[in-house]
Amino acid sequence: MTRVLVIDDEPQIVRALVINLKARKYEVDAAHDGATALQLAAARHPDVVVLDLGLPDMDGVEVIRGLRGWTRVPILVLSARHSSDEKVEALDAGADDYVTKPFGMDELLARLRAAVRRAEPLGGGEEDVIVETGTFTVDLAAKKVNRDGTDVRLTPTEWHLLEVLVRNTGRLVSQKQLLQEVWGPSYGTETNYLRVYMAQLRRKLEPDPSHPKHLITEPGMGYRFER
Predict the structure, then answer these.
(1) Does residue 170 carry a pLDDT above 90?
(2) Which end of the chain is more exposed for a tag (fewer CB within 10 A), N or C?
(3) Cβ(71)–Cβ(28) below 8 Å
(4) How many angstroms from the chain centroid is the CA of residue 146?
C-alpha cells in the first residue's frame, strides 16, 4: 500500500484528506506542525507527502528543504498562497507539485497519483541504458545521475523531466509534450514549471548553468538534450 504523510495544521482539512485517502486504500500518517512531520517522515518513510506551507512552528519551505536533505519522496504542496513567487520558491526548494486552496478533492487525488507514478522505478523489462556526457552520466534503468564520481540528488520531477529529454537525445521536445509527459495530460500551458525545473537541473548538472551545453532551450518551442 502507498503511505501518505499529510502535514497541515487545519484539523478539518486533515480529517477530509485522511477519510478520502483511507477510502482509496492509502495508509495515512498526519502531522500538524513541521517538527512532527520531519520526525514522522524519518520514522515512517512515506511514499508521498502532502504539505501545507502555513505551519505553526516553521514555514513549509523549511520542511521541504529538511526532507530533500535525505529523501527524494514526492512532495505535493497544498497552500492558500496564490502568488507565483511563493509557488516558485516551493518548487525551487524541491516540491514536485502545487495545489492552491480551496481545492477539489478529485484534482488533489489525481495530482497525488501522478506524483507517486513519477517516482516509481522503471519496469524490469527495460534495457539498461547509460548515457554519458562530458560532465555527467545518466543511468536510465537505475534512475541515477552521476557527476564527477558523485551521485546527484534529483527530485522525482527533476528526474522525470531529464529522463524524457535524454530519451529524445538531439531532438526538440515541445513545451506542451514535456508538461503533459511529466505533469500529466491536463497540463500544457504551465511553462513557468519548465523554467523552474530546467534552471534547477542546469544548476545541478551543467558546468556553467548560464551557458548550458547539454540542456538547451529552443526559445518559444521547447527543450533539447545534447551529449
Answers:
(1) no
(2) N
(3) no
(4) 19
> In the predicted model, what is the mean pLDDT of residues 73-80?
90
Is the bond leading into 102 cis (omega within 30 degrees of zero)?
yes
Between residues 151 and 180, the one the model is more confident about: 151
First to last CA, the chain: 39
Query: How much is the mean pLDDT over the chain?
Result: 89
CA distance 195 to 207: 18
pLDDT for 121 equals 59
- Look up the pTM and report it: 0.66
**Count of Cβ atoms closer than 10 Å to residue 29 Cβ:** 18
- pLDDT for residue 124: 44
Long-range pairs, 85-88, Cβ under 8 A, ≥24: 86/53, 88/192, 88/196
Residue 123, pLDDT above cutoff 70: no
Burial class of residue 204 (count of CB atoms within 10 Å of its CB; 0-12, 13-18, 19+)? middle
183 in Cβ contact with 147 (< 8 Å) = no
Report d(CA 181, CA 170) in Å as an integer: 18
Half-sphere exposure of 44 (CA within 13 A, CB side): 21
DSSP string for 74-92: -EEEEES---HHHHHHHHH
Q: Identify the residue whose cell numbers are 527533476.
A: 158
**Dihedrals phi, psi of 113, to nearest 5 degrees:** -60, -40
